[in-house]
Amino acid sequence: MKRTLLWMALTSLVTGPVLYASADPQTPTTKPDTTQTTTQHSGHKAKGHTMKGEVVSYDASTKMLTLKDDKGVTSSSPVEGKALTDVTHVKTGDHVTATMSDSTKAITGIRSATAATKSKSKTKAS
């Protein structure tokens, strides 16, 4: 009985600091403000989210789009699927809503934020 208690005490003394040290204290606890959506891709439903921001740049050779959110944070993501044709309709400085895949972390759809606002106001006027 004493040996078992001694062994348990020594084990907790050794593993305790190891487990504590593996925790990353620099990981932010706040998540970006995104809306969860479900997108249709390749015949199956994939989870995703939307991000609103201003187009900073698009590199056609690498297919990377850089957006700046309302807090001023910029992020670059690869563009794939239908978004490859959508990105041809936006330019630097445009405010857009990008649909992003949670599994691939790529932009799968882009809509102009001003077009979305106009379509909502047309619906209300009808």
Describe this structure as you would to a colleague.
The protein is 30% helix and 37% strand. It is α+β, with helices and mostly antiparallel strands. It has one domain: OB fold (Dihydrolipoamide Acetyltransferase, E2P). Strands 1, 2, 3, 4, 5 and 6 form a six-stranded antiparallel β-sheet that branches. The model is unreliable at 27-34 and 36-44 (pLDDT under 50).
Category from helices, strands and their pairing: alpha+beta
Overall helicity: 25-40%
Query: CATH topology, what is it called?
Result: OB fold (Dihydrolipoamide Acetyltransferase, E2P)
- Order of helix and strand elements from N to C terminus: HEEEEHEEH
Q: Overall mean pLDDT score?
A: 74
Biggest sheet statistics:
6 strands, antiparallel
Distance between the termini: 81 Å
The gross shape turns out to be: elongated
Radius of gyration: 23 Å
Residues in β-strands, percent:
35-45%
- Number of domain units: 1
At the first level of CATH, the class is: Mainly Beta
Low-confidence stretches: 27-34, 36-44
How many strand elements? 6
CATH architecture verdict: Beta Barrel
Counted by DSSP, the helix tally is 3
